[in-house]
C-alpha cells in the first residue's frame, strides 16, 4: 500500500510539472526589442528607399532584389572635384539563421537578420575635374562591377528599416576621354536607413497581438557609437594613368549622455571626425600619409520635457528616450590650418533607446557661427565637418 501511495504521489508531481512546463511554453512573450524590429510579423516583400530597391522573398531564407544605386563608389571614396555614379543592380541574399529561427518559433520569416549576398550592377558614371592649365574636364562613361556583402537587416516598426554591414566591391569605370578611367577594389562599411513598405499576411492581420514584456529601467549614463560612421579602404588600379594607389576614409563618431540626478536634464557630448589617408599626391606615388584630418567636438544640455510625466504614469523609467530641447556649443577645425570654427546650436529632437543596446536620434538644429574665418574657395573637397539642420544618428550603446 505504501508503494502504491508513493507511486500515485510521484505520478501527480510529474504530471503537475509537465502541465506547468506546457503552460509556460504555450504563450510567446515578445521583448521590447523584438516588437520594435517586428520579429513576430511575416513579410513577403519590401520596397526600400536607401538605396531604392524591391526585395522579394523566394523561400524562407532566400530573397532577390532589384536596386537602383547599389554601388558604394562615391565622390568621397574616389576623390577629385566631383564624381557621380548611377547604376541598376540585381542582388541575391541568404539570411543565415532564418531557417533555424523560424523552426524554433523565435521569429517569422520577415526579411530580417544576418545575411550574405552577391550584387551585380551596371550603369554610368560622371567625372569632373578642375584643371587650371588644361581647363575643366567632364567625362562620362560606363560603370560596372559586383560586390560581396556580409550584413544585417532589421525592420523598424511598419515603416522603416536599417541595413548595415561590410561590402567588398569590384568596380570599373571607362570614361569617354583619355586618362578618364579606373578600376577599384574597395572594402566599405555601409549603413542604410530608410522607409520600407512591405506585405502583411492575413494570418498576422487576424492574429491577436502577442503580449510584450517591457521592463522600465533607470539609466544615468550612456556611451554610444554612431553606426552611420562608415569607412572605406580602396585600391585604385590604372586611375587616370596614375600608378596604383590606396585611399582610405574613416569617420569615427561617438557620443555620451549623463543624466543630472533624477531629472529630465542631461549633459550631452559628441565627437566626430574624418580621417583620410592616401599614398599619392598630385599624381606622384609616395608613402601612405594623412591627406586630411577633420574633427568637431560638441557639448551641451538636453531637456526631455515629457520625462517626468511618463515616469509618474509608469510608462518609462529615467532613461534617454523621448522628445527634447537642446542647446550646445561646437568647436571644429578645417582643412586650412588656423581656420577653426565655433558654433552655438539650438533645436529640437527625438531620441529612442530600444532593448539592450540600440538607439535612434533625430534632431533639428539651427547653428549660429560665433567665431572662425571662411575657408578659401580654392580649397576643394570636404574642408570641415559642417553642421546640418537635420541630423540623424543610429547605432549601438557601448555602455550604460
Q: In summary, what is this structure?
A:
The chain is mainly beta.
Model description:
The chain has 6 helices and 20 strands. The protein has 400 residues and is mainly β. The chain has 2 domains: 27-202; 215-400. It has an 18-stranded antiparallel beta sheet that branches. A two-stranded parallel ribbon has the order 1-10. Strand 12 and strand 13 form a beta hairpin. It is flat and about 70 Å long. Residues 4-9 and 11-29 have low confidence and may be disordered.
List keywords for this structure.
400 residues, mainly beta, 2 domains, 18-stranded antiparallel beta sheet, two-stranded parallel sheet, 6 helices, 20 strands, 55% strand, flat
What is the terminal-to-terminal distance? 61 Å
> Order of SSEs, N→C?
HEHEEEHEHEEEEHEEEEEEEHEEEE
Estimate the global geometry from the Cα principal axes: flat
Largest sheet: 18 strands, antiparallel
Radius of gyration: 26 Å
> Total number of β-strand segments?
20
Count of domains:
2
The percentage helix is 10-25%
Q: Treating each run of at least 4 consecutive H or I residues as one helix, how many helices?
A: 6
Beta-strand share of residues? over 45%
Instruction: Please tell me the overall pLDDT.
Output: 80
Q: Which structural class should the secondary elements be placed in? A: mainly beta
Amino acid at each position: 500500500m505504501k508503494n502504491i501511495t508513493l507511486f500515485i504521489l510521484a505520478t501527480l508531481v510529474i504530471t503537475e510539472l509537465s502541465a506547468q512546463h506546457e503552460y509556460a511554453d504555450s504563450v510567446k512573450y515578445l521583448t521590447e526589442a523584438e516588437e520594435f524590429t517586428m520579429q513576430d510579423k511575416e513579410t513577403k516583400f519590401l520596397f526600400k528607399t536607401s538605396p531604392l530597391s524591391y526585395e522579394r522573398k523566394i523561400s524562407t531564407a532566400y530573397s532577390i532584389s532589384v536596386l537602383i544605386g547599389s554601388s558604394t563608389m562615391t565622390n568621397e571614396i574616389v576623390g577629385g572635384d566631383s564624381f557621380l555614379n548611377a547604376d541598376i543592380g540585381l542582388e541575391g541574399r541568404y539570411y543565415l539563421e532564418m531557417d533555424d529561427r523560424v523552426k524554433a518559433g523565435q521569429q517569422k520569416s520577415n526579411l530580417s537578420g544576418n545575411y550574405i549576398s552577391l550584387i551585380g550592377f551596371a550603369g554610368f558614371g560622371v567625372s569632373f575635374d578642375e584643371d587650371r592649365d588644361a581647363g575643366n574636364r567632364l567625362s562620362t562613361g560606363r560603370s560596372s562591377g559586383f560586390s560581396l556583402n556580409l550584413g544585417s537587416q532589421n525592420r523598424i516598426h511598419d515603416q522603416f528599416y536599417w541595413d548595415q554591414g561590410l561590402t567588398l566591391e569590384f568596380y570599373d569605370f571607362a570614361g569617354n576621354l583619355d586618362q578618364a578611367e579606373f578600376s577599384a577594389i574597395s572594402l566599405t562599411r555601409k549603413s542604410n536607413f530608410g522607409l520600407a513598405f512591405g506585405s502583411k499576411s492575413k494570418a498576422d492581420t487576424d492574429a491577436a497581438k502577442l503580449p510584450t514584456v517591457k521592463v522600465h529601467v533607470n539609466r544615468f549614463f550612456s556611451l554610444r557609437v554612431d553606426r552611420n560612421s562608415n569607412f572605406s579602404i580602396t585600391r585604385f588600379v590604372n586611375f587616370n594613368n596614375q600608378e596604383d594607389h590606396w585611399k582610405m576614409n574613416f569617420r569615427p563618431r561617438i557620443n555620451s549622455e549623463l543624466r543630472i540626478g533624477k531629472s529630465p536634464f542631461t549633459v550631452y557630448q559628441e565627437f566626430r571626425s574624418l580621417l583620410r589617408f592616401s599614398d599619392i599626391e598630385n599624381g606622384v606615388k609616395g608613402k601612405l600619409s594623412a591627406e586630411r584630418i577633420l574633427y568637431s567636438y560638441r557639448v551641451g544640455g538636453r531637456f526631455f520635457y515629457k520625462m517626468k510625466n511618463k515616469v509618474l504614469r509608469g510608462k518609462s523609467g529615467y532613461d534617454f528616450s523621448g522628445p527634447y530641447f537642446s542647446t550646445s556649443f561646437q568647436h571644429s577645425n578645417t582643412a586650412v590650418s588656423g581656420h577653426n570654427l565655433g558654433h552655438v546650436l539650438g533645436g529640437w529632437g527625438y531620441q529612442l533607446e530600444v532593448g539592450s543596446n540600440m538607439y535612434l536620434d533625430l534632431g533639428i538644429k539651427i547653428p549660429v557661427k560665433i567665431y572662425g574665418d571662411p575657408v578659401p574657395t580654392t580649397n576643394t573637397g570636404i574642408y570641415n565637418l559642417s553642421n546640418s539642420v537635420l541630423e540623424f544618428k543610429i547605432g549601438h550603446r557601448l555602455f550604460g
